[in-house]
Amino acid sequence: MANPPTQKSTGFSENINFKNVLKEAASARDAEDKYQRENDAKFRAVYQKVATYEEFCDIVLASNLKPLDKSDSIPSAGAGLTPWNVNATHTNKQQKSDEILVPQIESGSNNIETIKITSQAEFYKTYTKLTTDDKYLLLIQIGGDKLLSLFPTEIEVFEDILFVLTLEYRDNDMDIITNILMCMSAMKRFSLALQFLEKPSRTDLSNLLKLLTVSARDKTQNDELVKVVSIYS
């Protein structure tokens, strides 16, 4: 009678916990990705010749912030913009020249509280926590000039801003949105950002320019809009 075939050895120990192996591999990959992001941010900060060590740290810390995907949604805690800083209080202190005060508007209420955005890290921390409509309100409140003062070189959520402005577009905000686009075009790395736009973002941009053009039909000649269309087309 023939002996039953023996089972070939796989070369792996039966005691290996593959879940743990995969978990450890994922952790190692995440650690490597974090290192690369922070290292790239350090070089970017040096290239930008930041004025202070605090600003250098802000850029490095911001490299680990993960923007929301277009399909993501975080429900607001109540109507309108959600509280971004629960410890914020009303003060009568004089505003510093580098502080951006952003109103927190509550629907149906005359109460307006403000938070201070003084760095790129604070902007990213605030922006990425908001729903799409609240992101739109934040951008409209900040405006193009203040956005450029925060990001003279580049803004990492450029494509998301195009998406938000297109999706939530309102005719009454035409001038502000035009100014935002104009000021973003003044950022030092704008040409690269525009060159490497993903296809969906190019579609967003095209639709946004069409919306602006339609809104301007019943108004006097808008020289800034003409320039924006020329720059982004």
Automatic annotation (TrEMBL):
Transmembrane segments: none annotated. GO terms for biological process: determination of left/right symmetry; epithelial cilium movement involved in extracellular fluid movement; inner dynein arm assembly. Residues 118-200 form the RNA-polymerase II-associated protein 3-like C-terminal domain. One of its GO terms (cellular component) is extracellular region. It is found in: Cell projection, Cilium, Flagellum; Cytoplasm. Keywords: Cell projection, Cilium, Cilium biogenesis/degradation, Cytoplasm, Flagellum. Residues 16-74 form the Dynein attachment factor N-terminal domain. InterPro entries: CC103, Dynein_attach_N, RPAP3-like_C. Its main location: other. Pfam families: Dynein_attach_N (PF15867), RPAP3_C (PF13877). The keyword tRNA processing does not apply. Belongs to the DNAAF19/PR46b family. Homodimer. Dynein-attachment factor required for cilia motility. This is Coiled-coil domain-containing protein.
